[in-house]
């Protein structure tokens, strides 16, 4: 988790080992940062591989699902490999930018990513939509602004001068949406609005940070918060939602530019039909996904518009300094 502070405020950071341990270091307003680890994710066991070469390389962003949900992604990767008759290689990266960089270089074939990184990748190097999950009957999700359930904070403005957790610099629900909200509040930015803010690199970590009083508030993916609240509410039960954003296109499944047409069609067919057999339905149930469906790039236009608006606002603010 990365700590940033405004000039003149010294940083004292804790790392909780096991639950939370903070490493202390000084933090400057801009580039100087201290690293904070909330917890280490358990390494995934390698997915089943078939005795063939040329594995399909798949990444599941660590931010896209809580640790408990990774077992179902592992099973889904096994399922895909068996249907393809081809080995599957799991590629683990903590940051969305790292996943996009690998997709751009052709070192990844397919990835589960957030809406923000999809839009960025699409516009910068032609990242391609494959399918998207449908959850709770919809292909949208939200950004939740959360605080402790015993907090007196009632709205976003109440978080002025407080501490805050973002998930990833490139996350839509965990960074872009709240930044856009602030930009609409007299052109505020995270640097001007919050006393200090952190990057946890996991929506579940952000929820835990609020629950454990490490920060006053956080912006999290509604799908992750809802998943944990239904399956393991240890930390969600200690938080409350004070703001729910408008709906945005749900985090999709993407493929790298240049992936051969045959493989893309095979993958698309597997995803679109996974809900039709018993093994697939069991996996989807554990992921709290109804099914996978086709989506149009236009579903992510609102994300694209927010990116452009916040970038313009930042440029204006920088010129006024």
Average pLDDT number:
84
The total count of strands amounts to: 17
The secondary-structure element order is EEEEEHEHEHEEEEHHEHEHEEEHHEH
Number of helices, counting only DSSP H or I runs of 4 residues or more: 10
The biggest sheet, with number of strands, parallel, antiparallel or mixed sense and barrel status, is: 7 strands, mixed
Given helix and strand content, the structural type is alpha+beta
CATH topology of the domain at 56-139 and 249-306: D-Maltodextrin-Binding Protein, domain 2
Enumerate the spans where pLDDT stays under 50 for 5 or more consecutive residues.
Answer: 1-37, 39-51
The rounded distance between the terminal residues' Cα atoms is: 28 Å
The CATH architecture of the domain at 56-139 and 249-306 comes to 3-Layer(aba) Sandwich
Describe the structure.
The structure is a single chain. With 321 residues, the protein is an alpha+beta fold. The chain has a domain at 56-139 and 249-306: 3-Layer(aba) Sandwich (D-Maltodextrin-Binding Protein, domain 2). It has ten helices and 17 strands. The strands form four sheets. The chain has a seven-stranded mixed beta sheet. It has a six-stranded mixed beta sheet with strand order 6-5-7-16-8-17. It has a two-stranded antiparallel sheet with strand order 2-3. α1 links the parallel β5 and β6 (88-91). The chain is globular and about 55 Å long.
Give descriptors for this structure.
321 residues, alpha+beta, D-Maltodextrin-Binding Protein, domain 2, six-stranded mixed β-sheet, 10 helices, 17 strands, 36% helix, disordered N terminus
């Amino acid at each position: 988790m990365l700590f940033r502070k405004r000039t003149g405020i010294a940083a004292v950071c804790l790392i909780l080992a096991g639950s939370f341990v903070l490493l202390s270091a000084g933090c400057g307003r801009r580039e100087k940062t201290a690293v904070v680890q909330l917890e280490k994710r358990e390494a995934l066991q390698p997915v089943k591989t078939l005795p063939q070469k040329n594995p399909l390389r798949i990444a599941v962003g660590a931010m896209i699902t809580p640790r408990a949900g990774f077992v179902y992604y592992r099973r889904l990767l096994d399922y895909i490999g068996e249907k393809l008759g081809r080995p599957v290689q799991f590629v683990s990266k903590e940051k969305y930018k790292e996943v996009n960089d690998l997709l751009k270089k052709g070192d990844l074939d397919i990835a589960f990513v957030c809406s923000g990184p999809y839009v960025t990748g699409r516009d910068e190097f032609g990242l391609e939509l494959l399918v998207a999950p449908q959850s709770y009957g919809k292909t949208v999700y939200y950004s939740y602004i959360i605080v402790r359930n015993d907090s007196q904070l009632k709205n976003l403005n109440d978080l002025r001068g407080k501490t805050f957790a973002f998930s990833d610099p490139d996350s839509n629900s965990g960074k872009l949406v709240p930044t856009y909200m602030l930009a609409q509040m007299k052109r505020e930015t995270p640097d001007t609005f919050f006393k200090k803010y952190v990057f946890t690199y996991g929506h579940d970590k952000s929820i835990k940070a609020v629950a454990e009083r490490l920060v006053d508030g956080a912006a999290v993916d509604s799908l992750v918060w809802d998943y944990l609240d239904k399956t393991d509410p240890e930390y969600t039960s200690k938080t409350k939602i004070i703001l729910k954003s408008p709906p945005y296109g749900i985090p999709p499944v993407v493929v790298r530019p240049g992936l051969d047409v045959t493989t893309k069609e095979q993958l698309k067919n597997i995803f679109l039909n996974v809900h039709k057999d018993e093994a697939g339905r069991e996996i989807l149930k554990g992921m709290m996904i109804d099914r996978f469906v086709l989506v149009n790039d236009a579903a992510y236009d609102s994300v694209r518009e927010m990116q452009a608006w916040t970038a313009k606002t930042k440029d204006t603010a920088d010129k006024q300094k």
